[in-house]
Amino acid sequence: MEKILNKILDRLDSMDKRFDSVDARFDSVDARFDSVDARFDSMENRLSNLENGYQSMQLEQNALTKGQQSLLSEQSEMRKEVAFYYGSLMKKLDETKSELSSEIKHVSNVQKQHQDVLEILNEKQQ
Predict the structure, then answer these.
(1) Per-residue pLDDT tens digits for 72-108
(2) What span, in angstroms and rounded, lies between the C-alpha atoms of 92 and 9?
(3) What does the pLDDT read at residue 111?
(4) Does 119 have pLDDT greater than 60?
(5) Distance CA 82, CA 15 (A)
(6) Start and end of every T-SNARE coiled-coil homology domain (predicted)?
(7) Helix, strand, or coil here: 1?
(8) Does pTM top 0.70 for this prediction?
(9) CA–CA separation, 99 vs 122, rounded Å?
(10) What are φ and ψ of residue 51, in 5° steps?
C-alpha cells in the first residue's frame, strides 16, 4: 500500500513539474507580449516625431502596416501554441485524474480485503 501511495505521490510530483513547465511557457509568452508592446511603443514614438512631410509619413505608415501584420501573425501563432499546450495539459490532467481514481479504488479494495481477513482472523480467535 505504501508503494501505491508513493506511486501516487510521484505522479503528483510529475503533475507539479508539468504545471511548472506550463508556467514557464506562459512566462515566455508574456515576455513575447511585452516585446510586442515595446515594438508598438517604438512605432508610436517614431510616428509622433515625423516632420519630413507626407512622403516620409507614407513610408512610415507602410512600415507600420507590415509590422502590425507581422505582429498579428506572431500573436496568432503564440495563441495557437498556448491553446495547444493548454489542451495537452488538460488532457494529461484528465488522464492523471482517471489513473489516480483507479489507484484510489484499488487501494480501497485492498484495504477492504485486509479488513475482511482481519475480521475472519478475529472470528477464528474467538
Answers:
(1) 999 999 999 989 998 998 999 999 999 999 999 999 9
(2) 16
(3) 94
(4) yes
(5) 18
(6) 1-43
(7) coil
(8) no
(9) 34
(10) -135, 15
